[in-house]
Specification:
Number of strands of chain B: 20
CATH class of the largest domain in chain B: Alpha Beta
CATH topology of chain A: Rossmann fold
Shape of chain B: elongated
Largest sheet of chain B: 6 strands, antiparallel, barrel
Strand order of the largest sheet of chain A: 6-4-7-8-3-9-10-11
CATH architecture of chain A: 3-Layer(aba) Sandwich
Number of domains of chain B: 5
Helix content of chain A: 25-40%
CATH class of chain A: Alpha Beta
Distance between the termini of chain B: 82 Å
Strand order of the largest sheet of chain B: 15-16-17-18-19-20
Number of domains of chain A: 1
Largest interface: A-B, 74 and 75 residues
Distance between the termini of chain A: 101 Å
Radius of gyration of chain A: 22 Å
Largest sheet of chain A: 8 strands, mixed
Radius of gyration of chain B: 33 Å
Order of helices and strands of chain A: HHEHEEHEHEEHEHEEEEHH
Helix content of chain B: 25-40%
Oligomer: heterodimer
Shape of chain A: globular
CATH superfamily of the largest domain in chain B: Reverse transcriptase/Diguanylate cyclase domain
Number of helices of chain A: 9
CATH topology of the largest domain in chain B: Alpha-Beta Plaits
């Protein structure tokens, strides 16, 4: 007995079915592939995004998560989030503001953004609006409100030990895509790892000699590309302090004891 | 004679400095002196009204008082005394309106002018007086005495007798203005009584009990008991007074002596932009209330827009059927004439009230006023920033960015609080944590203009400053250090860090002039700090400082973590 010709779906392999479903889902997702996008300014990452991802850059409309790998890496994660925010704000002809919000815990643990240092990181202090401690739900609410405001160019929210639920991140992600404005969510090491609807998730770790190790842990823009698992080692220019000299090198450790004795 | 006092000194009166300066003004002949009814000024004149079953005198001129007439005297008795007395019917409403006008005029001395708390306790007749809170105002007029003299000279020019007393409490000033030295004996005298701060007790105790703003019944009782002065009354234990008189005299006594607080409600000119809504039945449901507030906002916005103004501050008051009032006031970041925006802010605010809106048996009256406004140019695009909500962005004109930002600020502030939504504003100081101030966004515009960056010439290199500054420097435990050098190993938040690179030091001296200008520097500002930028073997970067110079300022300097680099 000959087998009856089945529906075409049954013949296709699992991967083909998935691809078809993904195309279907992509039709309902607001335009990630067509909106404005930016280059991160890191050559390796940009090269990867250009080759592998449809908009050839990081889309402005989206929720981007930056997660610290270890507890002590939060400053590095925030630095990377800040770096992305500055690139988002750097679009021509905009004087848009950066809204930076923190939970109470993040305020206490990671510190507040410091105005006099901002110019070194590509932002003038008068373009910063800062939320000095709020509960996470209030902070997420503020993020959604700010996405609707035409004068805010980018939003960075930071939480130390609590991550938004999947529903919340899905909501923010959709709002960000619809508004075509980015929302960067920086999460401490204790908060990361939960399911989220973010467009990208970056795992950041501090490296000696003023570097960052950045791994793209999740990429929701493209269904084919897989980011390199080893990540990238980045040495951003703005952090290097070439003019200054490492004073520890000029003071060999052996002399420490004798100098202490002399001083005593 | 005073009452024989059973306990010699049950409540010693401790002088209490209230920190306030109040003026009580009393116009004993207000109705007679300010009336518009034509009469012969050289003859006695009195205003009469029907009161206590007879035509009685309710307003006099000083001349009539000199002839022996007094308030509350029946017209027949007065005519028997003075057959040629001129009389006219009293106009209490007009007299009160004139007093109100006078209160506005007195705002030239202080913005805080309030009405008298009560009518005359003894006779029940209208009592014309005003209260002024002149705390911190007197020096503008050359001192307290000069202020009072100026005020009384102006009243005299208008032919108005004004008795004034200045004291630290409402009660003392009120009593002294009416019952102070020679108030009854010499009605023509321009008197001014000034009680120095903290000496209310000495001034008030010799006065009769009526000076305490007591009711007629209480005053009668005092007379029957032989309590001639407030001092006699104060000699009793408070508990006994309360048992005999009820709570009111004790409260009044404590208010006069500054032991109990008393607020003064200023009478403010009615707002120019004002809408209200009276309901036949009380509303208890929040949804209906929100709808009504929305209507009020829309009406107010129309008023504002037609006159080209935007509201900077909104005051909403909800009156319940039992006359309790819930008042909300809302500052706005930028002048707005956008009704939808205002309504949304109120909705947000009402939903965030800690106990919610207790509507009781229903809210019957809603009033909304724009108490501070500023002219705005051109009509605003309605709905501001919220128009470019999802799916509407494309092809739609956007609201002007400043208005959009203002609306966002308002929304954030109404939910998160004014102190939380801030902007960094540079401040002229070399101490790193003071080089920037986080100013609430609602005030940041003013602060921007005020501070012209006097340090801009020698600002530190931004790259040497940490991107994130800790809220307060945290002490760290330095394990291996060399004197006058950076540490090799330290412990911060219970984690040991092995230093691999250090840059510095950057020496920041304390601001020696800070102590001279009156502000006392905090303890950790008094010593020189040496700042180092460190990197540990893991790649974490820190900004630490040593508090104090070795051997010159301290022998055991402490180390602090102040910020982190990304």
């Amino acid at each position: 007995m000959e087998p009856k010709p089945a529906a075409p779906l049954k013949h296709t392999s699992k991967s083909q079915k998935l691809a078809k479903l993904r195309r279907l889902v992509a039709r309902f997702e607001p335009g990630v592939a067509h909106g404005p996008h930016i280059q991160t300014g890191f050559a390796d990452i940009d090269a990867y995004l250009r080759q592998q991802v449809v908009p050839a850059g990081l889309p402005c409309g989206g929720l981007h998560e930056v997660v610290a790998t270890r507890v002590g890496d939060m400053p590095a994660a925030l630095g990377f989030a800040h770096r992305l925010a500055v690139r988002f704000l750097d679009r021509p002809h905009t004087q848009d503001m950066l809204l930076y919000g923190q939970t109470h815990m993040a305020c206490r643990e990671a510190g507040q953004p410091y105005g006099p240092a901002l110019p070194a990181h590509g932002l003038s202090a008068d373009r910063l609006v800062y939320i000095d401690g709020a509960r996470l739900p209030d902070l997420l609410w503020a993020g959604e409100e700010a996405l609707l405001c035409s004068a805010i160019g980018c939003i960075v929210l930071s939480s130390w030990d609590e991550a938004p639920s999947f529903t919340a991140s899905r909501r923010l992600s959709l709002a960000a895509r619809a508004a075509e404005r980015p929302l960067v969510m920086a999460l401490g090491a204790q908060a990361g790892g939960s399911a989220s609807a973010a467009t990208t998730r970056w795992q950041v770790e501090a490296l000696p000699q003023q570097g960052w190790h950045v791994r793209l842990a999740k990429l929701r823009m493209s269904y084919t590309a897989t980011p390199p698992p080893e990540g990238w080692r980045l040495y951003p220019q703005s952090l290097s302090q070439n003019s200054a000299q490492n004073i520890l090198q000029s003071q060999p450790r052996g002399q420490a004891a004798s100098r202490t004795a002399r001083a005593g | 004679m005073g009452h024989p006092n059973p306990n010699p000194n049950p409540n010693p009166i401790v002088p209490i400095a209230t920190g306030r300066r109040l003026i009580a003004l009393w116009f004993p002949y207000w109705a007679g002196e300010t009336t518009k009814i034509p009469h012969d000024k050289t003859q006695s004149f009195a205003l009469i009204d029907h009161y206590k079953n007879a035509q009685r005198l309710v307003g006099l001129t000083p001349l009539a008082a000199q002839m022996g007439l007094s308030l509350g005297l029946s017209l027949a008795d007065a005519r028997a005394l003075l057959p040629d007395l001129q009389t006219a019917m009293a106009e209490p409403m007009e007299a009160a309106a004139r007093l109100q006008k006078c209160a506005y005029w007195l705002q030239r001395y202080t913005p805080w002018v309030g009405h008298n708390p009560s009518s005359d306790g003894q006779t029940g007749l209208a009592d014309y007086g005003l209260l002024l809170d002149v705390s911190g105002c007197a020096h503008l007029f050359g001192g307290e005495r000069a202020l009072l003299a100026d005020m009384q000279a102006r009243f005299l020019n208008r032919g108005i007798t004004a008795h004034a007393a200045m004291a630290g409490t409402v009660g003392a000033a009120w009593g002294l203005a009416r019952f102070g030295v020679s108030a009854k004996t010499d009605p023509q005298a321009r008197r001014q009584i000034i009680v120095p701060e903290g000496q209310e007790a000495e001034a008030v105790l010799p006065l009769p009990p009526a000076a305490l703003r007591l009711s007629g019944g209480h005053i009668d009782l005092c007379q029957r008991l032989g309590l001639d002065t407030i001092g006699d009354l104060a000699g009793f234990a408070r508990r006994e007074l309360t048992r005999r008189f009820g709570p009111s005299p004790v409260l009044r006594l404590e208010q006069a002596l500054g032991q109990a607080g008393e607020s003064l409600n200023p009478c403010l000119p009615p707002p120019r932009f004002f809408v209200r809504h009276n309901l036949p039945h009380g509303v208890t449901q929040m949804e209906a209330l929100a709808q009504l507030i929305g209507d009020l906002c829309a009406r107010l916005a129309t008023q504002l827009e037609t006159s080209g103004h935007g509201a900077q501050r909104l005051d909403l008051s909800l009156t319940r059927s039992d006359n309790a009032v819930l008042a909300l006031s809302l500052p706005l970041a930028h002048p707005s004439a956008d009704g939808g925006h205002m309504a949304r802010l109120f909705e947000e605010r009402l939903s965030r009230l800690s106990r919610g809106v207790d509507a009781g048996y229903g809210i019957e009256h809603l009033a909304l006023a724009a108490s501070r406004t500023a002219p705005i140019s051109g009509p605003q695009e309605t709905m501001g920033a919220f128009e470019d909500a999802p799916n509407k962005t494309r092809g739609k004109r956007r609201a002007a960015p400043i208005a959009a930002l203002g609306n966002l600020y308002d929304r954030l502030v109404s939910r998160l609080g004014a102190q939380v939504v801030v902007r960094p504003v540079p401040h002229a100081s070399y101490i790193p944590e003071r080089a920037v101030k986080l100013v609430p966004v609602l005030k940041a515009d003013a602060a921007d203009k005020k501070d012209p960056q006097s340090l801009s010439a020698n600002l530190p290199d931004p790259a040497t400053r940490p991107l994130f500054m800790l809220c307060a420097p945290e002490p760290i435990e330095v394990i291996a250090e060399i004197p006058e050098g950076a540490p090799y190993r330290f412990r911060w938040r219970r984690v040991l860090h092995e230093v691999s690179a250090a840059y510095g030091p950057e020496r920041i001296s304390p601001e020696w002039w800070a102590g001279l200008t009156g502000e006392t520097p905090k303890h950790h500002n008094r010593q020189t700090r040496d700042y180092y930028r460190l990197e540990d073997t893991q790649g974490h970067r820190f900004w630490i400082y040593r508090d104090g110079l070795y051997s010159r300022e301290t022998t055991r300097p402490r180390w602090f973590m102040h910020g982190v680099f990304p």
